[in-house]
Specification:
Layout: E1 12-15, E2 18-21, H1 32-36, E3 39-47, E4 50-51, H2 54-67, H3 76-90, E5 96-103, E6 122-129, E7 139-143, H4 164-175, E8 180-184, E9 190-193, E10 197-202, E11 205-208, H5 218-229, E12 234-236, H6 241-245, E13 249-254, E14 258-265, E15 268-269, H7 278-292, E16 295-296
Parallel strand pairs: 7-8, 7-14, 11-12
Antiparallel strand pairs: 1-2, 1-6, 3-4, 3-5, 4-16, 5-6, 8-9, 10-11, 10-13, 13-14, 14-15
């Protein structure tokens, strides 16, 4: 479980068009986030004076907003300006994780209809001091009965704020005494965890589920890229939970936790019979990538 970082006591948060002290950073009860979880978001990390994969995250946010038919969506330049303003005000150049949120905005009266939104979007930049959140020794997972949404119900390619599906699975993981929960798709194949994408190694090859019932995360895409660049055999296919039980190494990927080893799944210990740790190699490749790439902060 994440712990509170005292460095965040006095952070400033960007809401709408200006900065507010942490305890004063609020949205209206008429905002779409409150009315229906009607917003899109991105998790973005800052490393040593650079924002990692900023363009990829902003592209996905704007694509999600387009799919949701948001109006008066701020440009990438406007969003970047808000991000830079926030980070500079907080003196944040490293060990920082941003929760970037864009809601449909204020409504003229309470209701579901997007036609009630007549003021444009609400932009929120929440930048916290937050190193990677998972412990070095790894995490345990438990399989949830809550299925990951199918595109027939709600397309996970929309990075939306309605996270009840994932939260219900997380509750199951908590009750099982695990760190997070594995979510299956409607056919019973592994999709992702409640918070991250998932990979496993078997006999030196890397496997990950198709991104059908889950988001194809930015970190996930970087892992696929790094595997190809470093000659690691990679297959995207349907994966059953029993394959994860018998994998050599299992790990999750996401902006907040980077690459995190999974040591136990449904009380079965993950045992590396291959011998060599391919995960350690992948972690070193990813660490090097975060040092090489990113948009430099202008302050």
């Amino acid at each position: 479980m994440q712990q509170y970082d005292k460095r965040n006591d006095n952070i400033l948060v960007y809401v709408g068009d200006k900065l507010y002290p942490r305890n004063d950073a609020k949205v209206s009860v008429f905002d779409s986030l409150v009315q229906g979880g009607d917003g899109v978001w991105e998790g973005i990390r800052v490393y040593d004076g650079k924002i990692f994969c900023l363009e990829e995250h902003l592209n996905r946010m704007q694509e999600s907003a387009k799919t949701m038919m948001f109006e008066n969506v701020p440009s990438k330049e406007e969003i970047k300006k808000a991000i830079f303003t926030t980070l500079k005000a907080n003196g944040q150049k490293d060990e920082t994780h941003m929760r970037l949120t864009l809601s449909r905005g204020l409504k003229i009266t309470s209701g579901m209809d997007p036609q009630l939104n007549q003021f444009g979007c609400t932009l929120i930049v929440l930048a916290e001091w937050k190193p990677p959140i998972y412990p070095m020794e790894g995490i345990s997972l438990a399989t949830a009965s809550t299925r990951r949404n199918s595109p027939q119900n709600l397309d996970s390619k929309i990075h939306h704020n309605n996270l009840i599906n994932n939260i219900l699975a997380k509750i199951e993981g908590n009750l099982a005494g695990a760190d997070d929960a594995i979510m299956l798709d409607n056919n019973g194949f592994v999709s992702e965890t409640n918070a991250t994408n998932i990979f496993h190694f078997k006999n030196g090859s890397l496997y990950t589920p198709h991104a059908d019932a889950c988001l194809s995360g930015v970190t996930r895409m970087n892992i696929i890229r790094l595997a190809k660049e470093n000659g690691i055999p990679l297959k995207e296919r349907n994966i059953s939970i029993s394959e994860l039980y018998n994998a050599d190494e299992v790990f999750t990927t996401g902006t907040m936790g980077e690459l995190t080893r999974v040591h136990t799944i449904d009380q079965r210990k993950v045992e590396n019979k291959y011998g060599e740790s391919m995960l350690q190699k992948m972690q070193s490749y990813y660490s090097a990538l975060t040092k090489q790439e990113g948009e430099k902060l202008p302050f």
